[in-house]
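We modelled the chain as a single entity of 187 amino acids. Its sequence is:
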Amino acid sequence: MPDHVLFLNRSRQMIAAIGALAGAIAIGTVAVAEPEPISAKPLIERHTFMGEVSFHLTQTLDGLDSHEVEMTDASSLAVLEFTIQPGAVFPWHTHPGTVLVSLAEGELDFIFAEDCTERRLSPGTAIVDPGNAAHSARNPGDVPAIVIATLLGAPAEGGLTIPVDADEAAALDESCDIETPGAHAGH
């Protein structure tokens, strides 16, 4: 076959391929999965300190009695990175240990059930979650919030979050004028 015929055939094939691709792009869109409202990525999974570790920690926030934590066995820890999408809200929960919450990016409103106050964290700020106080948090911004959570006294097994039962969560939602996931299940 002469070269000019081969060239024409290849050109036609290329034009057809480009046309098909353009048609596919015009007709449909590429399916992109929506991100989870809240995702967690373990950075350190249940590590143990060498030796014995204990601590006494006090945090005083406006409008609340001091949160005091005395932990005689804080020898294990877990560190997680949470990505919270805009508008996403954590269900009401507690923890089996104390959590140091640090905001790396975005905004986060941290809400203790004790007073329902939204305490706004911005990048570079942190708050102590004593673990035993029911709380929620939400991303009020329009970009994802990135939170680094360091849990001291992490149990060797089991969950790192303890959900509040649905009836209590519904009562907290009403009291704090917030709507959390799962609080109204069965209601």
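As a brief sanity check on the tokenised model: Residues 3-27 have pLDDT under 50 and may be disordered. Residues 95 and 160 are 6 Å apart (CA to CA).
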